Amino acid sequence: MRNKLKIGLFGFGCVGSGLYEVLNQSGLFNAHIEKIVVKDPAKDRSLPKNQFYYDPDVILEDLEINVVVELIDDAEAAYEIVTKAFKKGKHVVSANKKLIAEHLIELLTLKDEYGVSFLYEASSCASIPVIRNLEEYYNNDSLTGIEGICNGTTNYILTRLNNELRSFEEILKDAQDVGFAETDPTLDIDGFDSKFKLQILILHTFGLITTPQEVLNIGIRHIKEKDILFAKEKGYRIRLVSFARRIEEKIVAYVAPQFVRDSSFAYDINFEFNGVSIEALFSDKQVFIGKGAGSFPTASAVLSDISALQFDYKYEYKKLDECKATLANEAFLRAFVSSSDPESLKQIEFLEVDEEFVSQDYAYKVGTISLSQINHDLYRTHPELFISFFADSEICLHDPTKENKKAVNV
Amino acid sequence: MRNKLKIGLFGFGCVGSGLYEVLNQSGLFNAHIEKIVVKDPAKDRSLPKNQFYYDPDVILEDLEINVVVELIDDAEAAYEIVTKAFKKGKHVVSANKKLIAEHLIELLTLKDEYGVSFLYEASSCASIPVIRNLEEYYNNDSLTGIEGICNGTTNYILTRLNNELRSFEEILKDAQDVGFAETDPTLDIDGFDSKFKLQILILHTFGLITTPQEVLNIGIRHIKEKDILFAKEKGYRIRLVSFARRIEEKIVAYVAPQFVRDSSFAYDINFEFNGVSIEALFSDKQVFIGKGAGSFPTASAVLSDISALQFDYKYEYKKLDECKATLANEAFLRAFVSSSDPESLKQIEFLEVDEEFVSQDYAYKVGTISLSQINHDLYRTHPELFISFFADSEICLHDPTKENKKAVNV
After folding, report:
1. Total-model pTM
2. Alpha carbon distance A400, A242 (integer Å)
3. In whole angstroms, what is the distance from residue B315 CA to residue A161 CA?
4. Is-catalytic flag, B234?
5. Contact predicate B336/A173, CB 8 Å
6. CA pair distance A283, B123, nearest whole angstrom
7. Can you give chain B as a three-state secondary structure string?
8. Residues of chain A whose pLDDT is less than 50?
9. What is the pLDDT, as a whole number, of residue A165?
10. Sign of torsion over alpha carbons B45, B46, B52, B56
11. Which residues of A are part of the catalytic machinery?
C-alpha cells in the first residue's frame, strides 16, 4: 500500500545534506534520492561531484521522479521549481517559508489543479511538528490563538543579550561568527522570517490566507541595553513573538518583541530553541518546544513529510473552507516604547500612559496604544525607537480607554 | 471518502459527558453518538434518564454501531467491553491506561485478528498528542528516550508542596477537596497511573511490550517536608517522572520521584499540567506540554481519535516489528534516599556516597545505587524512606564505580 518515492532533491546545503544522511539512516526503504540539483558547480560538497546536476529540468523533466524536495535558499528560484513540479504532477516537499508566504493562494490553487500533495512541515519551527498537529489533531477543535518563538537567530541573540548585557551589535557579531546568524541578518532580526512562518501558522490554525504586506513585522534591531535592563528589573525577558489571536471574527496578528513573564511559555525558550503555544477551546493550552534550526532537526521534519507521502498524505486545509474571520485592521494593546532621543517618543500616540521615564539620552513610555500606528516604515526609519508589547496584557478590537469613559458616562 | 461513525459510548462521567459536549460543538458531522451505556441508573446526569442504557449489549450487539468509545473507570469491565467490541468488528477508542497496560499483547493481537482499529490517545497525558506524534511523526527517527510528567494529581501535589512547605497529608487532603485527587489516591500517588502511561509510551517510542510487573513504580507518598527543603536549598524541584531511555539494546524504565533543575523540561511543568520530552537522533529534543486531565482537554483527545477513524486511521506499530531492545534488569544511577529513622537507611546499599546527613529524626544519603534493589515491596513496607533520583545524572548499565577502579588498575 506504500508508494515508492523517487525523489529529486534541490539544494545540498545545511538541510539538504542533512536530509541525505537522515534518509540513509532512517530505514525508510520506499524513498530514494534519485538526483540532486545544485546551483554552484564550484562549491565543495560531502559527495563526489558526479552525484550532482546543475539543470533543474534534469529532475523536473524526469518522468520517473514523483517527489521534488526543494531545500534551496532562493525563494524566486524555488517558485520556478515548485510550480513546474506541480505542473509535471510531482508531489513537493519544501522548507521555504518565504516562497510559501509570498505565494500562498497561487501555490494552493496550483497543487489542487494538478492533484498533487504539497507538504512543508520544516518551514515553520523546523523540527516541531506544528503544522501536522494543527491539520490532524486540532482539526475539530476551535482554535483561539497561536503564538510562537519561530526564529532561532533572534532568540539566540535575545537570550545572550539577557544573560550578558552587552550591545545588540556585539552579540549579533558573535552570532554571525558561530553560524547562528547570516552575513545579511535582515530577514531574521527584522522579523520577516518570523512573519512568513506566522502566515503559515495562521493558514493552518484559522484557515486564513494572508499576504506579507498585510501582517506587521517589527524586529529587534533597535534594542538598547537599557531596554534589557528595564525588562530584567521588572522580571521580564524579551522575546520576538509571532502572534495571532482570534477575537470575535477578527484575527489580530503581528510579529514584534514582547516582554514575557515566567508564567509565559516563551520565557523558558532559550537560545536557538523554538516554541509554539496553541490555544484551543477544548484541549486548552498546548505548548510544543524543539530545535528551530539546524541540519538534522530541520531534515527530520522534511523526512516526516517524505514518509507521509508514502501514504498519499495531503494537508486537508479543513479550516480554509470554514474560515469566516478576517485580519483585524486595528487593535489596542499595552506597549513599551523607548528612545535614545526623548523628543522622538512624541510621534507615538499613547491613549493612556501608565509609566514614563525621561533622561537626557533615554526615555520610555508604557501604556495603551493603537496597533495601526506601528508599521514597518516607522520601524525602518526610526532606529532610535524600540517597540515591545506585553505578553500578559489584554488585546482589544476597540479603544479600551473610550469604553471605560463611556461606561462612566452611563 | 469519510466513514460515517455511529458511536456507542460507555461511561458518562467527567470525560464521557465532556465528549458529548465537545462532539456537539465540533462540527464533526460524520460522527454521532447513537447510544450511551452507563452503570448506575440512580446517578444524576446532565441528560434525561431516557437517553441512557444499562446493558452493554445494547451497544455491543447493535450491528449499526461501528465505533465503541470506552470511557469508564473500571478496567476489568472495560476489558469485557473492548474485547467483545473487537470481536463484533467495531473500532474502539479508549482512554483506559490500566486496561491497555495490563492487556497489551492480547488487545493488540485481538484487534489485528478482527481487523479493527484501536485508538487511545487520551490514555497518556490526556490532551497532549504524544501517541499520534510518536506514530506518525517520529516513526522514522531513531528515538533514544522519553520522559513524562504524566500524572496531574501528583504534579499538583508536588507543586503545592514546593510552594507551601506543608505536609504531604495536608496537601493531599486539599487536592481531594478540590477534586484533583481521588478518595483512594493509590493509583496516582504510588505511581501506578504514571506507570501504565509509561508502558504505553514505551510501546510507541521503542516498540517494546511490557507488563506492569516488569516496570518499577515508586511514588511520592513518603515525601517529608525536609526532603522538599533539601530540594529547594539545592535549586531542585521534585517531580514524579515516567522515565525510559535506550542504552545500547536495553531500555531502562521506571516511575520515580526525580530532582529536576531549571534546565529540565519538567521544572516548569506545574500543577495539573503534563509534559513529555522525546529524545530523538535527528529531531533532537522535543517537548510537548498540555493539560493532563480535565473533562474537555481529555475529551478533545478522544475527539481526535474519533475524527481519525473517519479516515480508517490505525496505529501502525512500526517500531514493534523492528524492536530489538529488551528491558534492562539492572542500571546504576544517582539517588537520594532519606529516612525519618536514620538506622533504616542502612538497608539501601550505596556503591558510592557523595553526601551524607544524619540527625536524630532525619538522615539522608546521596550517591550511586543499583536500581535493582529498589522495588515496590521496599517502597510499600518502608514508609520512613523517601527515594528520589536525579534528572541530570548519568545512568549506566554497568557499575560505574567498578569501571573507574578497573580503569585505575589498568
Report:
1. 0.94
2. 23
3. 45
4. no
5. no
6. 14
7. CCCCEEEEEECCCHHHHHHHHHHHHHCCCCEEEEEEECCCCCCCCCCCHHHEECCCHHHHCCCCCCEEEECCCCHHHHHHHHHHHHHCCCEEEECCHHHHHHCHHHHHHHHHHCCCCEECHHHCCCCCCHHHHHHHCCCCCCEEEEEEECCHHHHHHHHHHHHHCCCHHHHHHHHHHCCCCCCCCHHHHCCHHHHHHHHHHHHHHHCCCCCCCCCEECCCCCCCHHHHHHHHHCCCEEEEEEEEEEECCEEEEEEEEEEECCCCHHHHCCCCEEEEEEEECCCEEEEEEEECCCHHHHHHHHHHHHHHHCCCCCCCCHHHHHCCCEECCCCEEEEEEEECCHHHHHHCCEEEEEEEEECCCCEEEEEEEEHHHCCHHHHHHCCCEEEEEECCCCEECCCHHHHHHHHHHC
8. 406-410
9. 86
10. negative
11. 197
Closest-CA residue of A relative to B266 is: A268
| Cell numbers at B47, concatenated | 441528560
Selecting from A140, A280, A307 the residue whose C-beta is nearest the C-beta of B140 gives A307
Torsion of CA B74, B76, B82, B84, to 10 degrees: -130
The predicted pLDDT at position B408 comes to 45
User: What's the confidence (pLDDT) of residue B293?
Assistant: 83
Q: Indicate the CATH number for domain B133-295+324-396.
A: 3.30.360.10
What beta strand segments (E) does A16-98 contain? 31-37, 52-53, 67-70, 91-94
CA A349 to each of CA A328, A334, A367, A390: distance values in angstroms, whole numbers, following the listed order = 19, 12, 10, 17
Does the beta-carbon distance from B300 to A132 stay under 8 Å? no
CATH superfamily of B5-119: NAD(P)-binding Rossmann-like Domain (3.40.50.720)
Q: Do domains B5-119 and B133-295+324-396 have the same CATH topology?
A: no
* Helix/strand/coil for A96: coil
Copy the grid coordinates of residue A380. Answer: 525602518
- Residue A410's pLDDT is 37
User: What is the model's pLDDT at position B403?
Assistant: 66
CA-to-CA dists, residue A227 to A186, A356, B302, B406, angstroms: 21, 13, 46, 55
Instruction: Find which of A282, A305, A312, A324 to mutate to test the B interface (most B CBs within 10 Å of its CB).
Output: A282
B307–A283 C-beta distance less than 8 A: no
- Could you tell me the three cell numbers for B369? 545505587
Q: Does the CB of A285 have a partner CB in chain B at under 8 Å?
A: yes
Residues of chain A contacting residue B128, judged by C-beta atoms under 8 Å apart: 286
Those residues with Cβ within 8 angstroms of residue A241's Cβ, 6 or more apart along the chain or in another chain? A147, A148, A149, A255, A256, A257, A258, A260, A266, A391
| Per-residue confidence (pLDDT) for residue A6, from 0 to 100 | 98
- ipTM for the complex shown: 0.91
Is the Cβ–Cβ distance between A303 and A26 less than 8 Å?
yes
Q: Is B149 on the interface with A (CB under 8 A)?
A: no
Q: What residues in chain B have per-residue pLDDT under 50?
A: 406-410
Interface check A378 vs B, CB under 8 A: no
Q: Cβ–Cβ of B139/A308 closer than 8 Å?
A: no
Are the beta carbons of B307 and A140 separated by less than 8 Å?
yes
The phi and psi torsions of B134 (rounded to 5 degrees) equal: -65, -40
Is A312 within 8 Å of chain B by CB? Answer: no
Which amino acid is residue A249, in one-letter code?
A: E
Domain ranges for chain B: 5-119, 133-295+324-396
Subunit contact B303:A282, Cβ cutoff 8 A: yes
> Is A140 in Cβ contact with B289 (below 8 Å)?
no
Q: Is B113 on the interface with A (CB under 8 A)?
A: no
Packed helices A168-177 and A152-164: angle between N→C axes, nearest 10 degrees: 130
Measure CB to CB from residue A133 to each of B22, B129, B142 and give the nearest one. Answer: B129
Distances (CA, A) of B233 to B162, B226, B393: 11, 10, 18
Q: How far apart are CA B223 and CA B221, in angstroms?
A: 6
Q: What's the confidence (pLDDT) of residue B407? A: 45
